[in-house]
Amino acid sequence: MPLPQRKNTFFSVSPSKNIYKCFGCGKAGSPVDFIMEIEQYTFPEAIRHLAKKYRIELEETAQTQESIDEALEVQSLNIVNQWALEYYAMQLWESDLGRSIGLGYFKERGFLETTLRKFDIGFAQDEYQAFTSESLKRAIQLIC
């Protein structure tokens, strides 16, 4: 038999949804979030705490240098991707060519500016080295 939802004016717990909400302070989240908040634990500490409480065996592995290097490479690629997103968005919204050609193209096809911004649409000018040159100016090292 499922547990009934407990509720008062300030705090609500929904076991079926696996969430809590405090209307007094506005905090909400999962059981792990709750443990992190109440016990001031980090995410791994909260997971260990809950696993111990409910007698769940955790298998923890130490990070190898290879996995650390891989994580750093992924983080670097994410930084470069974010820079590319910002660069091409800037080309669409702030350059003369971007506004006239890029925005003109999208507006002819019925796209709203809010949609273009929501999906981070950008514009690539017809210059082979423009992105690379700008990246080097700003000391962004591209991984190629």
3D structure, described in words:
- The structure is a single chain.
- This protein is α+β, with helices and mostly antiparallel strands.
- The chain is 53% helix and 8% strand.
- The protein is built from 6 helices and 4 strands.
- It has a 4-stranded antiparallel sheet, covered by helices on one side.
- Strand 1 (6-7) and strand 2 (11-14) form a beta hairpin.
- Helix 3 (65-94) crosses helix 4.
- The longest helix is centred in the middle third of the chain and has 30 residues, at 65-94.
- The N and C termini lie far apart (57 Å).
- The model has no long low-confidence stretch (mean pLDDT 88).
Please write out the topology:
Layout: E1 6-7, E2 11-14, E3 19-22, E4 28-29, H1 31-39, H2 43-53, H3 65-94, H4 96-108, H5 113-118, H6 130-137
Tertiary shape:
flat
Q: Strand count, sense and closure of the main sheet?
A: 4 strands, antiparallel
Strand content: 5-15%
Cα separation of the termini = 57 Å
Q: For the residues shown, what is the average pLDDT? A: 88
For the secondary structure, the number of strands is 4
Q: What's the order of the H and E elements?
A: EEEEHHHHHH
Keywords:
144 residues, four-stranded antiparallel β-sheet, alpha+beta
Briefly say what this structure is.
This protein is of the alpha+beta class. The chain has helices at 31-39, 43-53, 65-94, 96-108, 113-118, 130-137, and strands at 6-7, 11-14, 19-22, 28-29.
